[in-house]
Specification:
The chain is of the alpha/beta class. The protein has 8 helices and 8 strands. An 8-stranded mixed beta sheet has the order 1-3-2-4-8-7-5-6, with helices on both faces. α7 runs parallel beside α8. The N and C termini lie far apart (38 Å).
Length: 255
Amino acid sequence: EHEKKEVDKMLSHFVTLPCGLHKRKRFTMETEILLNPQWQHSADYRLYQGAREIELIYLQNRPFCVVPEASTNRADGPETIQAQNRAALDVLENDHADHFFTIGGESTADLASILLASERCHGDLAILWLDHTPCDLVAARAGLSNKQGLQGTQIVTPHSFPATADALLAVCADALQQASKTYVYVHLGVTLLQAKEIPSPAATLHGGIAAETLLSVLHELQQQYRIAGASLTGYLPCGKWSPALDRILAWGETL
């Protein structure tokens, strides 16, 4: 509780959003940003605050929609996670965007976006998991109805995350070739990035991938594959603006 108050105090230095603001969006678009500040699956409230910080620092001049927080209670358990996932699905299903770039929140905050992409692609979808956080989408899906399944969608993780663009692209292409799917959903974790560029406690202090290297690979993936959606998760608040993170968010708008 003390940790929560300290992070709230830090965020109070930024502009406070009007109470009840859940959407800021265009009515027609190809790609829309979905902010889902889900944190309950990992029980780390800083992930909620990290999503709020991205909203306050980076999204003020970008159209986006927000998934309302199901609960602020750490002890609510699986029911709250299910409610958060259903709320995200409701937002997505009532929107007319062709693609979504989802910002978390924890690493499973993009579950609803992946489920929608899987449905639209009829299961012909590979989830490229670029994140040091282990994939836990199957467990996070518990409690959703059977129709909200991954429908043959395959989760693929490169065997390593090299620091050079050519090597990173090669391991990504190898993983995707094994999946042999038409569409790709790109999941990005802040844990993969360099702390010297992304001043978030979640970023990698030693090693990591430079933002320009990652962006080079992402642009190449867009040329080679049909991207059905993407996400960025795992950001923890730091109170600082990062040009590198801003460029990654700008890439997400180009899906």
